[in-house]
Structure formats: structure tokens, C-alpha cells
């Protein structure tokens, strides 16, 4: 982890010096954010954002806040009302702060209301149903489901499907990805969620960290390949296989 | 504003550094931790001396009350003295401690020791105080058939021996001499390990031994701090919602009747929560149990049952074969779903044992075991690296939304 962190910090410093050199491939789900916001502007309905079923101690929730900031800025520009639903009370002031900063940055602080952030219920299933009911009740145009989800992901996304919303989801919970793929229009999967904030902001520091992440994956892949070759030659559990001993304790 | 941000960045960095140094570095440092099955243990011991009296050795051999307790004198929040039970690794030569064993049942007494009901010998020495367990009165001499508590107060630790443990690691027996800062964790099959003392590790247990950290014994305090912060945030959220809904009620905005439900729900929730800790049989407790077991539990079950129908509806929409990849996904989904039912077995079992590799259940198991696991692990690698990079950005305050 120390090596990986050093690589990330090195790529961040490289990106600061040459911001144009860092390239992130297009992510369909994030490109569609503009389309979803445009749809909401045309239809006149609000946008619903759900930052997941966990609180800020989950790294996915923090990644979702990066997307929330971007979506909030877009909503501020076009004057689209926002609804943020959460099942964690601790996320209420955090989300309020994020959207307030976003609206302030776009010069539209008057459009932000504290009542935009709704804590529905502590139980994630009841919160999902509440969000689904809101989608139907308030004729939500676009739904963003980013963050950590449990089994209630389908309750949320099916509700949006029934309401006829355009849905973009993003999660790193591998068991929920198939449900989102089945019911949402666009899905940001696994590690792409952690690249969201960097992709949307185009900030050199954050893009550098994504590049460093890819270098880390490359090193991991090389170690995996080496391990497979050595295990094939020596066999598993062979004391001569020092490489295997290095990673076993 | 700039100084506030600088303070926030500094605090965030220090907090992250503490977490890394305390939780991540020690167990992952090569050669720092060892894991294996316990073969034998050599018990720990502690030698203490009261004043000029001869030193006394206390081996850490027993279970429960027979295990010597090491008590350090501290002050509580009101400044009153109290004795706190600490593990052996928290004391060293020169520490002023009280050692306590018992109460235990005495079977027989000789000049130098008592023999307990289970046959253990506990040494007697001049620096000890012998207390009758039942009455809490000091006795001059222990006698058989009594409940005895042995206490050696205000004694200086002369030396400690953490003991050693012989582990079976990868088929080989390895003896590890424990250090003064070594933590012994007993690993369970289902969850994370829990710290145990050396004498609680029995032959056959799976044990991990590793270094303790400076803050290891203060993790409870850190966890309580987290609890306090979370509770405060809970209160802030509730306050914010209360203000929003009260404004809606006062101004009679559209949907104000729903705000009445909010306040009713808050009162109901608070009453239910208080009733949970009321005396069993009381009305409050009965009310709380009714709300939780009869209403919330039933509603949650009903909501969970919706998932089956939602899954069927989503699958019906999603499994449209338009491309080659979709056809591959559909085929593997069909094989896995049917292969897990008895019907799947009957469909292909006619092929016989010779072609058992082509049985649907075996193909389904292969799909789970090989390609699915490969993809799963690849996803996990990517997720973990992404999470580390994101956490690194938050730790160093480089994340834009963090500002």
C-alpha cells in the first residue's frame, strides 16, 4: 500500500505539471449525466439523488458526494429542483453542505433549500420505498443512484423505472451491479465510481490519482502473472517457491 | 477562513496517520505477524515484590478467577481512586500494581501454598493479604473449605515473562517467544479474531500473534468518540428536519399534513426507543415490543418480499438477446438458474457418470468457480485500488468536495 500510495502521489505531481498529459477514457454513465440533467430541464421535473445506504465512513458515499456536487452545479445553472434522499441522518448535513457550496459557486444560492435533503427512514428498505414513492409523487425526471447499496437497490431502481425516470447508477458493491444493470439506463461500475469526481471535475490532481491507480493495477497484474508462472513451475506449497512465501503469512 | 481550512487539513492528516500507523502498518509488515494452530504454550508469569519482602512469582495459568488480575491505581472522572484491570503487556519492571487471585474454593492448605478445588497450587507469601470471599473480611491464615481471595497490593513489578507459544505453521512447528507488546488473537471461523491472553489459547486453536501498537489499548476510546460524533450528527439532522417541517406547518405550505406525520413519527420512535430499555412487563416495554415486533418487523418482511417480484420484472426487461454478449449472458444465466434446481440434474443425468462434466449442475458450478470468480476478483482488485486512491485524496485533502 505504501508503494501504491507513492505511485499515486508521483502521478499527481506529474499531472500538476502537465495536466494535458493525463487521459481518462470516456465513461458512458458519466457522459449521460448531462443528458439526464437536460431531460429534467425539458420535462420540468426535479432530479432525485440518492447517495447510497451507508454513511460517510464508507468510501463509496464519499465518492458519491463528488458526483452530487457536479449534479448540483448543473441543477443550479438550469434552475432544476433537486431532491436528495438518504437513510443515514449523518448524511443530511453533509449533503446539505455539498449542494449549498455547489449552488453558491454557481451564484444561485437562493435556489437551494434545506428541505431538498430528505432523511426518510433509518431502515434502508423503507428509505428505498420512500424514494420510489417520491419519484412517482413528484414526477421526478432523472434519478441518480450513486454510492453503497444493499439489497434495496432494486427497490429504488424499479421504482424509478415504474415512474418513467432516466436512471444513472454507480456502485462498487458487486452484488448490486447486476440489479442496476437490469433496471437503470446507465451504470457506473466498481472502480469507475471512484473515478467519477476526477472525470467530472477534470481537476489535474484528481486525474493524476486515477492515473496512479492504473499504474498500481499494472504492477498488481505483473505480480499476478509472475505468481501464476512460478506456481505453475514449482507448484503450490513448494518451499522453493519464495515468491509464494513472500505473500503468505 | 484560511486558518480554519489549514486546521481542518492538519487534523484530517493526523487522524489518517494515526489510523495507518495503528491499524494498517503493524499487521502487514513482513515478518511481524504469525498465524498457525496452537501446539503448546509456555505460560506467562510476573514477579512482584512488596517492599523488602522476597519477590513472588505469579504464573498466568488459571481460568476465570484463578487467573491473576493485574490492577493499576487510577483516578476516575470525579478524581476518586480506582483500580483498573490491565493485561500483562501493559506492565513492565517498576510498575506499581496490585495483584489479585480469586475468589476460589480452598481444598487444602500447607505452609507455602493452598490447593484449590481443581488441584491447582497457589503460593502463599508474606506480602499477600488473604480475604474471605464470602464476607470480604481479612483472615490471618487460609483454611480448607473457605472461599479465598489473595491480594498483594502496592507491589513493584520486578520482571514479566510474556511466555512462548508453539504454532503449527504450514505443517512445521515453530516456537515464538512473545514480546512484551505482543498481541495474541484467537481467530474464529466466522468473523474477526478477538484478543485473548496466552493461557486462554488452547491446543488446536487458530491463533495469530502480532505486534501491539501504542494506541492499541485506546481503541475503545476512539470507538466511543466515533459514537459521540455520530450521535451528535443524528441530533443535528433531527434538528434540521424539525426546523424544516415546523416551518412547513406554520406557513401551511402544500403537504403540511405530512409534516404532522413527521412529528408523530418522531414521538413514536422516541417512545419506542425509551420503552426498549424499560423493565420487562411494564407498559412502555410492551408498547415498544409491539411496535418493533408487530409493526416494523411485519412491514420489513413485506417490503423484502417485494424484491422477488421486482427481480422477476427487471430480469424480464433486461434479458433481451440483441447482441452476442447478451446471448452469452442469457445462456450462462439459464444454465446457472436451471442447474441449481433438481430439474437441471434430471435434464442431463441420463448421460451417465462418464459424462458428468456435461451435467448442468456441474457446468453451473464451473461457471461460478472459474469465470465468475475470476471476474469477481478482478473487480475487487480494481475497487480496492480505487478506494485506496480516493481515501488517499481525502486524507491529504485533495478531494474537491472535501473543501
Task: Describe the model.
The complex is a heterodimer of chains A (249) and B (403). Helix content of chain A is 59%, strand content 11%. Chain A is built from ten helices and six strands. A six-stranded parallel beta sheet of chain A has the order 3-2-1-4-5-6, sandwiched between helices. In chain A, helix 3 (59-78) runs parallel beside helix 4 (91-105), helix 5 packs parallel to helix 6 (153-163) and helix 8 runs antiparallel to helix 9. The two termini of chain A are 17 Å apart. The model of chain A has no long low-confidence stretch (mean pLDDT 86). The model of chain B has no long low-confidence stretch (mean pLDDT 82). In chain B, the strands form two sheets. In chain B, strands 2, 3, 4, 5, 6, 7, 8, 9, 10 and 11 form a ten-stranded antiparallel beta sheet that branches. In chain B, strands 13-12-1-16-14-15 form a six-stranded antiparallel beta sheet, with no helix packed on it. With 403 residues, chain B is α+β, with helices and mostly antiparallel strands. Chain B has three domains: 27-43 and 164-211, no CATH class; 45-161, no CATH class; 221-402, no CATH class. The interface between A and B is large, with 62 and 53 residues.
Amino acid at each position: 500500500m505504501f508503494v501504491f500510495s507513492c505511485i499515486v502521489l508521483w502521478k499527481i505531481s506529474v499531472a500538476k505539471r502537465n495536466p494535458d498529459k493525463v487521459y481518462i477514457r470516456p465513461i458512458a454513465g458519466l457522459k449521460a449525466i448531462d443528458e439526464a440533467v437536460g431531460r429534467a430541464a425539458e420535462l420540468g421535473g426535479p432530479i432525485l439523488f440518492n447517495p447510497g445506504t451507508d454513511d460517510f465512513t464508507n468510501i463509496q458515499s464519499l465518492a458519491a458526494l463528488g458526483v452530487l456536487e457536479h449534479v448540483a452545479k448543473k441543477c443550479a445553472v438550469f434552475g432544476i429542483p433537486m431532491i436528495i434522499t438518504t437513510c443515514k441522518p449523518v448524511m443530511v448535513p453533509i449533503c446539505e453542505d455539498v449542494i449549498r457550496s455547489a449552488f453558491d459557486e454557481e451564484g444561485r444560492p437562493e435556489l437551494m433549500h434545506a428541505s431538498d435533503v430528505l432523511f426518510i427512514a433509518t431502515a434502508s428498505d423503507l428509505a428505498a420505498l420512500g424514494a420510489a414513492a417520491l419519484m412517482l409523487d413528484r414526477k421526478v425526471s432523472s434519478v441518480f443512484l450513486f454510492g453503497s447499496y444493499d439489497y434495496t437497490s432494486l427497490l429504488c431502481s424499479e421504482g424509478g423505472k415504474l415512474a418513467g425516470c432516466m436512471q444513472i447508477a454507480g456502485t462498487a458493491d458487486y452484488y448490486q451491479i447486476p440489479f442496476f444493470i437490469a433496471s437503470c439506463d446507465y451504470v457506473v461500475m466498481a472502480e469507475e465510481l471512484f473515478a467519477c469526481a476526477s472525470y467530472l471535475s477534470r481537476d489535474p490532481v484528481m486525474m493524476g490519482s486515477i492515473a496512479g491507480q492504473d499504474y498500481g493495477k499494472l504492477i498488481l497484474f505483473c505480480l499476478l502473472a509472475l505468481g501464476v508462472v512460478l506456481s505453475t513451475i514449482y507448484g503450490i506449497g513448494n518451499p522453493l517457491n519464495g515468491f509464494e512465501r513472500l505473500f503468505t503469512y | 477562513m484560511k486558518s480554519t481550512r489549514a486546521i481542518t487539513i492538519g487534523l484530517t492528516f493526523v487522524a489518517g496517520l494515526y489510523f495507518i500507523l495503528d491499524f494498517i502498518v503493524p499487521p502487514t509488515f513482513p515478518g511481524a505477524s504469525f498465524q498457525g494452530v496452537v501446539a503448546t504454550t509456555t505460560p506467562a508469569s510476573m514477579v512482584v515484590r512488596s517492599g523488602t519482602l522476597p519477590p513472588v512469582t505469579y504464573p498466568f495459568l488459571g481460568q476465570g478467577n484463578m487467573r491473576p488480575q493485574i490492577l493499576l491505581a487510577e483516578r476516575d472522572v470525579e478524581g476518586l481512586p480506582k483500580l483498573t484491570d490491565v493485561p500483562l503487556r501493559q506492565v513492565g519492571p517498576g510498575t506499581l500494581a496490585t495483584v489479585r487471585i480469586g475468589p476460589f474454593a480452598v481444598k487444602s492448605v500447607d505452609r507455602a501454598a493452598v490447593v484449590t478445588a481443581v488441584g491447582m497450587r497457589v503460593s502463599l507469601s508474606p506480602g499477600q493479604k488473604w480475604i474471605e470471599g464470602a464476607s470480604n473480611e481479612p483472615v490471618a491464615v487460609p483454611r480448607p473449605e473457605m472461599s479465598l481471595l489473595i491480594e498483594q497490593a502496592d507491589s513493584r513489578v520486578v520482571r514479566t515473562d510474556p511466555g512462548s507459544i508453539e504454532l503449527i505453521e504450514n505443517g512445521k512447528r515453530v516456537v515464538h517467544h512473545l514480546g512484551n507488546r505482543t498481541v495474541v488473537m484467537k481467530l474464529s471461523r466466522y468473523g474477526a479474531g478477538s484478543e485473548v491472553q496466552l493461557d486462554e489459547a488452547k491446543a488446536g486453536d487458530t491463533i495469530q500473534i502480532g505486534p501491539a501498537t501504542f494506541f492499541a489499548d485506546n481503541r475503545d476510546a476512539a470507538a466511543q468518540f466515533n459514537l459521540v460524533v455520530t450521535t451528535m450528527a443524528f441530533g443535528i439532522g433531527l434538528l434540521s428536519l424539525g426546523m424544516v417541517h415546523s416551518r412547513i406547518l406554520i406557513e401551511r405550505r402544500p403537504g403540511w399534513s405530512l409534516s404532522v406525520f413527521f412529528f408523530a413519527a418522531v414521538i413514536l420512535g422516541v417512545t419506542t426507543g425509551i420503552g426498549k430499555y424499560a423493565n420487562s412487563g411494564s407498559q412502555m416495554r410492551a408498547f415498544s415490543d409491539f411496535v418493533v415486533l408487530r409493526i416494523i418487523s411485519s412491514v420489513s418482511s413485506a417490503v423484502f418480499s417485494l424484491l422477488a417480484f421486482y427481480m422477476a420484472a427487471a430480469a424480464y426487461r433486461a434479458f433481451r438477446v440483441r447482441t452476442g454478449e447478451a446471448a452469452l449472458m442469457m445462456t450462462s444465466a439459464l444454465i446457472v438458474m436451471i442447474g441449481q434446481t433438481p430439474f437441471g440434474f434430471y435434464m442431463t443425468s441420463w448421460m451417465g457418470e462418464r459424462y458428468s462434466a456435461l451435467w448442468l449442475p456441474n457446468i453451473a458450478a464451473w461457471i461460478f468457480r472459474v469465470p465468475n470468480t475470476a471476474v469477481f476478483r478482478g473487480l475487487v482488485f480494481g475497487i480496492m485500488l480505487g478506494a485506496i486512491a480516493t481515501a488517499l485524496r481525502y486524507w491529504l485533502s485533495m478531494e474537491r468536495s472535501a473543501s
